[in-house]
Design a protein that fits this description.
- The chain is an alpha/beta fold and about 130 residues long.
- The chain has one domain (about 10-125): 3-Layer(aba) Sandwich (Rossmann fold), CATH 3.40.50.
- The protein contains five helices and five strands; from the N terminus they run E-H-E-H-E-H-E-H-E-H.
- Helix 3 links the parallel strand 3 and strand 4 (about 80-85).
Length: about 130
């Protein structure tokens, strides 16, 4: 009998505690949420220690903003998928997020419809390591 597929691991980063709690609750049925952090520096430390498959991060965080955190994560852990989850939905930020190494960009207003599939798609497209 084949082993069951391993569920992707996710680290959630948002400076608003209510959002990290809500995201964790929404993602747990589909993924193994391995941690929650509230600023970019804490995110980098947690990600390098936990080595999640996916980091869901907000762009506006103290310590290290989301774009800088994304660039730093991709340098340190090239195979991590970064899904930007932000209230700021504009083309300039979207382009900056992808230029920084993001795998997906999901506006918070559309998270209920798009976040789980964006994470799944990012993991599916990730090169095998």
């Amino acid at each position: 009998m084949p082993e069951p597929a391993r569920r992707p691991t996710v680290l959630v980063a948002d400076d608003y505690p209510g959002m990290t709690t809500a995201l964790t609750r929404a993602l747990k049925p589909f993924f193994d949420v391995v941690g929650q952090v509230s600023d970019g520096l804490e995110l980098f430390d947690a990600a390098t220690q936990l080595r999640p498959d996916v980091v869901v991060l907000d762009l506006r965080m103290p310590g290290l903003d989301g774009l800088a955190a994304c660039r730093r994560l991709k340098e340190a852990i090239p195979d991590v998928c970064v899904v930007v989850h932000t209230a700021a939905d504009d083309d300039r930020l979207r382009a900056q997020a992808f230029a920084s190494g993001a795998s997906a960009f999901v506006p918070k207003e559309r998270a209920g419809d798009e976040l789980v599939s964006a994470i799944r798609d990012a993991v599916t497209r990730r090169p095998s390591t």
